[in-house]
Specification:
The protein has 166 residues and is mainly α. The chain is built from 8 helices and no strands. The chain has helices at residues 13-22, 28-39, 46-53, 57-76, 90-101, 110-120, 128-139, 155-164. The radius of gyration is 31 Å and the shape is rod-shaped. It starts with 12 loop residues before the first helix and ends with a helix. The relative contact order is 0.07.
Length: 166
């Protein structure tokens, strides 16, 4: 059996506990690993360490290597940056909002909206699912929604009709 890797934790136990409380939940197990290594009298193999931490042995090995190469900063570095930025600019967002709220100039379908975006803003085009989910998420739009009244309806005609029906 191979000899387990000897990791010497430089930080004190109190510093590690304080650091653990400052970290987000997804990084606390990494500090737990350092605490386990600090409290252990013998060097622990990756399998023993993974059983104690209840993580995969490859994860335990990766965390040990990160700590030995880059220290605590490298161990706590989390490379995820979040969501991708939207391809729809604020200007385009406002134009879509104006067109969707316009009774005479509104879009009749998502295909119509995609064609308008392609003609005016993005010559490379935009994916149907992208615009569909964007419009639903930001404007609450749905397909096949009835209008309250006809877009060409004249207010004078409706008032005259209401007067004669009384």
């Amino acid at each position: 059996m191979a000899k387990s890797k000897q990791i010497i934790v430089k930080e004190s136990e109190q510093d590690l506990v304080k650091l653990k409380h400052k970290q987000p939940v997804h990084l606390r197990k990494r500090i737990d690993m350092l605490l386990v290594l600090k409290r252990s009298e013998t060097s622990l193999s990756k399998l023993e360490l993974s059983k104690i931490l209840k993580v995969n042995h490859n994860t335990a090995q990766k965390w040990r290597n990160l700590y030995s190469e880059k220290g605590v900063e490298g161990l706590l570095h989390y490379g995820k940056i979040g969501f991708k930025p939207s391809i729809i600019s604020k200007e385009l967002h406002l134009e879509i909002q104006l067109r969707l709220n316009s009774p005479k100039d509104a879009f009749t379908s998502y295909i119509d909206l995609i064609q308008w975006i392609t003609d005016n803003y993005m010559p490379q085009g935009i994916n149907y699912q992208t615009i569909n989910s964007y419009v639903k998420r930001n404007f609450g739009a749905k397909l096949k929604v009835a209008r309250k009244s006809h877009i060409n309806k004249k207010q004078e005609d409706s008032d005259a009709f209401k007067k004669t029906s009384k």
